[in-house]
Amino acid sequence: MLTKFETKSNRVKGLSFHTKRPWILASLHSGVIQLWDYRMGTLIDRFDEHDGPVRGVHFHKTQPLFVSGGDDYKIKVWNYKMHRCLFTLLGHLDYIRTVQFHHEYPWIVSASDDQTIRIWNWQSRNCISVLTGHNHYVMCATFHPKEDLVVSASLDQTVRVWDIGALRKKTVSPADDILRLSQMNTDLFGGVDAIVKYVLEGHDRGVNWASFHPSLPLIVSGADDRQVKLWRMNGISEKPVSCVIWQYPIDTKAWEVDTLRGHMNNVSCVMFHAKQDIIVSNSEDKSIRVWDVTKRTGVQTFRREHDRFWVLASHPEMNLLAAGHDSGMIVFKLERERPAFSVIGDSLYYIKDRFLRFYEFSTQKDTQVIPIRRPGSTSLNQGPRTLSYSPTENAVLVCSDVDGGSYELYIVPKESVGRGDTVQEAKRGGGGSAVFVARNRFAVLDKSNNQVLIKNLKNETVKKSSLPVATDVIFYAGTGNLLCRAEDRVVIFDLQQRLVLGDLQTPFVKYVIWSNDMENVALLSKHAIIIASKKLVHRCILHETIRIKSGAWDDSGVFIYTTLNHIKYCLPNGDNGIIRTLDVPIYITKISGNVIFCLDRDGKNRSITIDATEYVFKLSLLKKKYDQVMNMIRSSQLCGQAMISYLQQKGLPEVALHFVKDERTRFNLALESGNIQVAIASAKKIDEKDPGKEIDKKDHWYRLGVEALRQGNTGIVEYAYQRTKNCERLSFLYLITGNMDKLSKMLKIAEVKNDVMGQFHNALYLGDISERVKILENAGHLPLAYVTASIHGLHNVAERLAAELGENVPSLPQRENVPSLLVPPTPVICGGDWPLLRVTRGIFEGSLDSFDQGVQDEEEEEEGSVDQWVEGLDINDGDGLPNGHGELVEADEGEGEDKGEEDEGWDLEDLELPPELDTPKVPNHNRSSVFVTPTPGMPVSQIWTQKSSLAGEHAAAGNFDTAMRLLSRQLGIRNFSPLKSVFLDLLTGSHIYLPALSSAPVISLAVERGWSESAIANVRGPPALVFNFAQLDEKLKAGYKATTSGRFSEVLKIFLSILHAIPFIVVETRREVDDVKELIVIAKEYVLGAQLEISRKDHKDNPVRYQELAAYFTHCNLQTPHLRLALLNAMSVCYKSQNFNTAANFARRLLETNPAENQAKTARQVLQASEKKMTDQTPLNYDFRNPFVVCAATHVPIYRGQKDVACPYCGARFVPAQDGKLCTICDLAVVGSDASGLLCSASQKR
Questions:
Q1: How many CA atoms within 13 Å lie on the side-chain side of 1010?
Q2: Interval 1097-1110: pLDDT, tens
Q3: Which of 259, 376, 518, 747 could make a disulfide contact with 762, Cβ separation 3.0–4.6 Å?
Q4: Which residue ranges are recorded for the region named Disordered (predicted)?
Q5: Rounded CA gap, 766 and 740, in Å?
Q6: Which residue has the higher pLDDT, 299 or 269?
Q7: Minimal CA–CA distance to 542: which of 570, 501, 511, 563?
Q8: Is 113 a residue whose pLDDT tops 60?
Q9: Could you tell me how far CA 861 lies from the centroid of its own chain?
Q10: Is pLDDT above 90 for 857?
Q11: What is the sign, positive or negative, of the torsion defined by CA atoms of 533, 538, 543, 549?
Q12: What is the spatial order of strands in the sheet that 297-303 belongs to?
């Protein structure tokens, strides 16, 4: 049995496969119906309207419907797309056992404990026929897949076959009036719609199940007499049988063919396999049995330990079965469907229907070569598993599971190719794995001795070689080399030199696929693909949620693979994507250009044409074949959000820019790539399309200003701020660029807008003291105005203000030193753009510019040259004010004229700027070398966390949120306060900080674990962590030392620090993972022991509790020397308190540890003295005869059999009242919460 999917739930009583989708319905004894995707392993939906167990469920063949029947006497028809019950059919008077849709008509057949079978029309929602005749519960009823028959099984010990041909003719509208008249007569005078055709008697007890053969006139039944019976019937016809009930024509007979015995309890369900000549049955004896129909013997038995089986279902089109049991269900196959094949150059050798066949890819010619013998065993899964071919000797090795693993060697005569009638006598041998390693040599794995036997074509052993690891399968790895698979690793072994050429830790590898040049290898496991070099140097790893089925390399070095429902690709750097979907699984044999050659599950050769544009484009980018990239951009239809996201992720937004027409997307990509010119053009077009959206307009012009400021392009910054009318940012821009003239204009604009704070800020930026005093005075802040004038030496103004203030003149402090005035700083660079790094233009910037030349020409026609539109940035726009502010001046123009004095107001004509400041410069992309900003790459912290599920690596990257979520999910940790220092240590320890210029920020550099000079420059390793297992080992020794000395406060502190550091530890091997888990247990025990001992010392005034805590301490799992000390202490405490019986117990336990002579002497004396009395003066809550664990919170014993809850991290045990509270041992996790378990190594990911 090959289990494909398994669920855990209440007892499953009904099952049904969907005909097209990978879905299965399971009806439960709890009344819930579950809809599962068995391919993904996920619960899609649940339906909960039945009251009581649901025993029958069935999918409709074509409609989005299913039907269910339960113990509430109701039949419900559901629409799974609408997620609801459409209607309920009422009529049965007792439990409903089974329900089934008819394959063609709108009928439902149901069987019930009311001793009837009913046929319903689900379109009219009526019962159209009631089949009576059984005199006990009817356990099942099913339609025949082709004929107008129904078979039913009942506890009255019979199986009945019903003819419903008359019902069909009655339901389907008659073609002429005569037939319609006869039908009316039948209805009036009591015609019979369904009649009993056969009554099959032979079972000694109630029959639980009966089902038809899909094509032959056979019936199989299973009953409470533990027997499976096979029945044959003849006279099957579409014509109605001319008889009344209980009478049979002579030509209709049915008889028992054979009885299959083997089940040890009631047979629950039995059915014919749709694709093979076998019967499958299950039983309450907790087994599923497979029987050969032709030989009528048992083939195989599958057992569960604790679960009785209740129901079976078979997929209508695929080789899948499902079985429901007491605690869930399983979906399984009886045999592997993957054909054994081997590809050599342009040829494919494969096995189909017990024949070795030859397929030529170039001509697509398929020929039969030689027959392969059938296995002598009758059990399943004995077919060929692997095939290895030697082209020079024309020899074939076929491996199978026959006799626990064996191989067969065939030498194919040249003349037999194409004929396939030559019977070859194979050379056989034991060994589950055998491959050719040279022209006329093959290797056979001897698992028992962990060695390989090298044999010649005469099947003679010529050499033996021990293997370096415990190997269970060997694969070909080049001439003279083997790839050996162990449990968690693979190694390449040179048979000649007996050396290990490569070693790689992997998940459990199922298939090994070498590239055509043998330079790369793909290692396929159930849900992962590892790409490595020929020396097993790791390149990348790819994880899939659905099973990986096959794969092959194309000529360009891309690995193409299939899952159950997709064809996908994997580039050498690990990037992957979907090529197309699949209806049924296939097994790729070869890839030639855009054509995939494959075998399906029936062993038929197929060729599939694919569109390789996407992965060829990505591969060209990866290999920097930019000329090919350019051609593909110009000619192909590459587009879509996925491609744009990919180019952005790879740091090529300038390439993605040429795939999009949407202006907002172009704007975002232009900003990301630093292309200010395209960003401005897109921003202006966005304004033209949405002139009314002021908020959006401000947003994208603001973002443009931020990017231009980052590049130091002050002209564009100024223009963007003018478009958003952001006066505060404009003022600050003029300050830092030293443009005092425009800053003066901003002061006047603030005055016109009556913006007091704006006026004050601009005056502050200008260093204009008189203006500041004037603003403060006009705003009514006379004391501030007086202080400002006094401090800055404007004595005349200060005296005038003092007169106005009178007695309210503020007193100024005495100044010992001459104060420094608050004046604007001198700008580093006055005017002009900031200098940028000079870099050579990339290939895309020139080539793609010409590709988009048409678009640019249109832009130039509309907007003119860059210089022309930049002239609009002149602050003297129109009336001499910044763009957009002229109307503000016009509003107050009259007020300026009324004053009439020459020294008051301000003259607009005096505000002209020098012409060289009017035009901001945009980088000119038509030169070969230009000023551009380097595109920032992906931060190392993001690289670290992309594919890691280890909390320590996330914390080292600074992603504390994700680290905490991981710890919460894996270990149930909710209290992160004790871990704050650990988080900070990890972050600071994985980075180094370099000081730069005095005014520049410190530069942070990531520190990688295992870095070496030979490392690939662009491949980032994981972060270096400040905590490692060796440090914890040192702490453990210190904790042991403190325990020996009796410093229990220090013991508690040390072991708590170990528990707080372990969640962040990262180790390499599975053995180290086990060591870490063992350390958690040790630390937990010592923390508990230290807490008990500290608590004991606080209870000196309570002698009973004092003794109990000393006794509990001896049940902590301590090292032997510490256990001796705990026993010695408990013995002394109890002896002094005259609890002699308990003291004697401790003395015996101490002597069993072989203590030192002085301890042994004391123990013997106490034992001798205690055995004379053997009484306890004070009763204790301590029974040393009954095993227990100590509750870590209440410090009371939890005896065996009592309920308890545990901490998901440290495993400490608690009484149920502590459920949901914080663990008192680790002080991190919540007691009783769900957690997936500690993850501290990449090797744990399977």
A1: 9
A2: 888 888 899 999 99
A3: 747
A4: 853-905
A5: 7
A6: 269
A7: 570
A8: yes
A9: 52
A10: no
A11: positive
A12: 267-272, 278-283, 287-292, 297-303
Residue carrying structure tokens 């519960």: 137
Q: How far apart are the first and last CA of the chain?
A: 22
The answer to whether residues 452 and 467 touch, using CB atoms and an 8 Å cutoff, is yes
Helix H segments across 144-286?
165-171, 177-188
Token pair 């006047």 is found at 748
Pairwise CA distance, residues 915 & 989, whole Å: 54
**For residues 69 and 10, what is the distance between their CA atoms, to the nearest angstrom?**
17
User: 862 pLDDT band (50/70/90 cuts)?
Assistant: very low
Distance CA 382, CA 912 (A): 95
Q: Which residue has the higher pLDDT, 617 or 80?
A: 80
Give CA–CA dist 1128/1110, Å, rounded.
Answer: 10
pLDDT at residue 209, as a whole number? 94
Q: Provide the token pair at 353.
A: 């229907």
Judged by average pLDDT, the poorest of 5-19, 868-882, 995-1009 is 868-882
Query: 């494909």: which residue's tokens?
Result: 4
Architecture of domain 2-169+192-234+252-333: 7 Propeller (2.130)
Q: Could you tell me the pLDDT band of residue 253, with boundaries at 50, 70 and 90?
A: confident
Q: If you search the block for the tokens 């010619």, which residue do you land on?
A: 365
Mean pLDDT of all residues in 265-270: 93
Tell the residue number behind the tokens 């390399």, with chain if given.
553
pLDDT tens-digit readout, 1070-1087: 888 889 999 999 999 999
Q: Structural domain boundaries of the chain?
A: 2-169+192-234+252-333, 940-1029, 1050-1231
List all residues 6 or more positions away from 989 whose beta carbon is below 8 Å from its beta carbon.
956, 1007, 1024, 1025, 1026
Confidence band for 845, pLDDT divided at 50, 70 and 90:
low
Residue 561: the pLDDT is: 93
In DSSP terms, 437 is beta-bridged to none
Name the residue among 1040, 1032, 1092, 1022 with its Cα closest to residue 1060. Answer: 1032
Cα angle, residue 319 at apex, residues 315 and 322 outer, rounded to 5°? 50
Query: Residue 121 and residue 70: Cα distance in Å, rounded?
Result: 18
Q: pTM higher than 0.90 for the full model? A: no
**Above 70 in pLDDT, residue 783?**
yes
The closest alpha carbon to 140, from 265, 246, 271, belongs to 271
Range list of H helices, 873-976 = 886-891, 893-899, 940-946, 951-956, 960-971
SS (H, E, C) 398-434: EEECHHHCEEEEEECCHHHCCCCCCCCCCEEEECCCE
